[in-house]
Write a structure and sequence with these properties.
There is one protein chain. With 110 residues, the protein is an alpha+beta fold. It has a single domain, classed as Alpha-Beta Plaits, CATH 3.30.70. 31% of the residues lie in helices and 37% in strands. The chain has a four-stranded antiparallel β-sheet with strand order 2-3-1-4. A hairpin with a 2-residue loop joins strand 2 and strand 3. Helix 1 packs antiparallel against helix 2. The radius of gyration is 14 Å and the shape is elongated. The relative contact order is 0.29.
Amino acid sequence: MTMNSTVAILVMTHLPDQDSADRMAEHLVGHGLAACVNIMPASTSIYHWQGKIERAAEVALHIKSTLSRYAEIETAIRVMHPYELPEITYVHLDGGEPAYIQWIQQETRV
């Protein structure tokens, strides 16, 4: 897997409500950190936290960007996120429609 900074990535996080998800998505796209953010419908997360099984309603974000923007995206999520330990994960988009991948790269160019 290449570590080229123009590699397209999909960053994932969950927020507790629609308003915070909207604010984060608009911030990321508005600052050129993401080409697109998909806000998924509310879902239920079940997870271990501090020795207990927890359940929470959450809104998922799928953030399309490039590796060169990841550090800034991570910082923005940490600053804007209300959770003590927010989910911040990413995967490389190793395939896809070439023109779409180019669009992601163009929109997030530093």
